[in-house]
Automatic annotation (TrEMBL):
Gene Ontology biological process terms in this record: ATP synthesis coupled electron transport
Annotated organism of origin: Odorrana tormota
Domain Cytochrome oxidase subunit II transmembrane region profile: 1-91
Name of protein: Cytochrome c oxidase subunit 2
GO cellular component, one term: mitochondrial inner membrane
Chief localization: mitochondrion
Length: 231
């Protein structure tokens, strides 16, 4: 989850988010180098003692400032296209889940476990347990196994929503009448928080997402117990 006074991204909990963090640092380095060069040129022009320069021809300079930006754009674009391809690629997911956005809560359906469906509401402040986070904790967390390729089907029942978990590098719009698809793989056990990222009404900021990643054996035990309870 995000921390007070945090300047950077959240720590990566999935391979895709790690790639996004590396690309962010890569692009930011290019931005810093360009900014330093521009500031150096501006400061040089402001402090020069020369009052008049008659430039008749500067083909070399024009070639440089045409080719260099093209090279910089290629260096930034190629890693970006690679990450876009990785984010859209889904090869034989280990488990498929579906989430439906409502005003203002989420419904989760486990496609591989019949009759395993539940709603997830934000936990009221008065009912929070020690160590839980206000406006981020829910009454029923989405439970998943870590180390398993997940396919997430995302839609909405009423208005536009957006299912986003920053630590996993996942953000997908939930559109009524349409199924969006996202994939992720949680690399570490733990609890990961997100929020609806589409302004969906008066209680938009009160429909958080909480994902708890468990070892596969514990997840299967939880799924069996939850199925029996729901039946």
């Amino acid at each position: 989850m995000a921390q007070p006074s945090q300047l950077g991204f959240q720590n990566a909990a999935s391979p895709i988010m790690e790639e996004l963090l590396h690309f962010h640092d890569h692009a930011l380095m290019a931005v810093f180098l360009i900014s330093m060069l521009v500031l150096y040129i501006i400061s040089t022009l402001m402090t020069t003692k020369l009052s008049y320069i008659n430039t008749i021809d500067a083909q070399e300079i024009e070639i440089v400032w045409t080719i260099m930006p093209a090279i910089i754009l290629i260096v930034i674009a190629l890693p970006s296209l690679r990450i876009l391809y990785l984010m859209d690629e889904i090869n034989s997911p280990g488990m498929t889940m579906k989430t439906v956005g409502h005003q203002w809560y989420w419904t989760y359906e486990y496609s591989d476990f019949p009759n395993l469906t539940f709603d997830s509401y934000m936990a009221p402040t008065k009912e929070l347990e020690s160590g839980h986070y206000r406006l981020l904790e829910v009454d029923n967390r989405m439970i998943t196994p870590f180390g398993t390729a997940m396919r997430m089907l995302i839609t909405a029942e009423d208005v536009l929503h957006s299912w986003a978990v920053p630590a996993l590098g996942v953000k997908s719009d939930a559109i009524p009448g349409r199924l969006s698809q996202a994939s992720f793989l949680i690399a570490h056990p733990g609890v990961y928080y997100g929020q609806c990222s589409e302004i969906c009404g008066a209680n938009h900021s009160f429909m958080p997402i909480a994902i708890e990643a468990l070892p596969v054996r514990k997840f299967l035990k939880w799924a069996a117990l939850a199925q029996n309870t729901s039946l």
